[in-house]
Amino acid sequence: MDKPQTDFETVLASVTAPTDAFAAPKSFPVDRLRLDLAERMDLMEQDWRRLEVLPQNALHQSYDWCDAWYKAHDNPALLVRGRLDGRTVLILPLEVVRETLGLVARFPGGRFNNINSGLLDDDFRYLDGEAVQAIAARLRRLLKGRVDLLALETVPLIWRDIAHPLTGLAAIENANRTFQLPLLQSFEQTLAQIHAKRRRKKFRVQERRLAEKGGYEYVVAGNESERRALLELFFEQKAARFRLQGLPDVFQAPRTKTFFRLLTQVATRRHDTPLELHAIRLKGDFEGQIAAISGLSRMGDHVICQFGSIDDTLAPEASPGELLFWLMIERACRNGAALFDFGVGDQPYKRSWCTVETVTHDLLLPITAKGRAMIWMRAASIRAKRAIKRNDALYTWLQHLRARRQPA
């Protein structure tokens, strides 16, 4: 067993140490846990799908999400599996990427993930500090010679009132927050959390303005062909929007587009879907044209907005993007969802809708000496990002610089 954490971890920026909030009500039998690297996803699909529906587990580690990412990218996959008396209680789907100093194992999806967790069974929950260090030692042995650093990024230390069992690892607070709106028993109750009277007035104004131009239709793509058509239009709208703002297009890379295209091929299971396309289609003056598009994912009662776009040339005075959020949230309430997630990144429109702001952390485990140096670099980078985001002028200048350097 490795020795307990040293001063190395405690001096990192915003490192979170275990507190009484994570006190274990019972001991996890860590001596009976067996860790290995599974050869292929499909060989443990049954266990994977059993775990992915548990409320403490993030949609971005679901089978379909990871499968699409692996198929769209050439990065080596590492599938860490933990079994307790033969029963799979832990899956960490990872990909290997190269950073400045060495190789990192991280969750597939990268910047397109929101909240991450890994796949954790109910049995894999109550870990004291000694158990976490024992698991860390085994992970080091398992990943030695493959990567320099294990980085479980954007993990909430507590999610859905459940503490993450690997909280005892070095934890650097992520530079970005995520934003959620709890969905209550009715849409009316949900709106009451966020100034219902003002919201309803704004909605009526939006509908009236669109009615003056001939009206609109709320569209939810019903099959793969419709999803694909809206996705391709989203890529066009988003690219135009980024060009207008002088910002880099994060969806430009061919592999990124392939990833989302693969997601549109996955059939919806009741309400669960890795990617569902929603849109505002105009009538009258702009007959058949799409003013706004959003991509939603859902697993269980958790809905996540993955992306959105608008066409600035179509009825901008009616704020069709804002109208689309109203309609999507109303539909999610009607379909029994409990949480509408606006995802990573602080934006005024998110704060106008959300009552919950979630802090996430990057859980880090150095495998080599390079990995320890990489943690220091990450800590410095996060401090720099926070400072830049507090300076609007500097942040805007850097975004424009990134856009100019992006390949055409």
CATH-defined fold name of the largest domain: Aminopeptidase
Number of helices: 12
CATH architecture name of the largest domain: 3-Layer(aba) Sandwich
Query: What's the structural domain tally?
Result: 2
What structural class should be given to the helix and strand makeup?
alpha+beta
Largest sheet features? 13 strands, mixed
**If you average the pLDDT, what whole number results?**
90
Please provide the count of β strands. 15
The portion of residues assigned to helices is: 25-40%
Highest-level CATH class of the largest domain = Alpha Beta
Helix and strand string, N-terminal first? HEHHEEEEHEEEEHHEHHEEEHEHEHH
Low-pLDDT sequence parts: 1-25
Task: Give the DSSP E fraction (strand runs of 2 or more residues).
Answer: 25-35%
Whole-angstrom Rg: 22 Å
The N- to C-terminal Cα distance equals 51 Å
CATH homologous superfamily assignment of the largest domain: Gcn5-related N-acetyltransferase (GNAT)
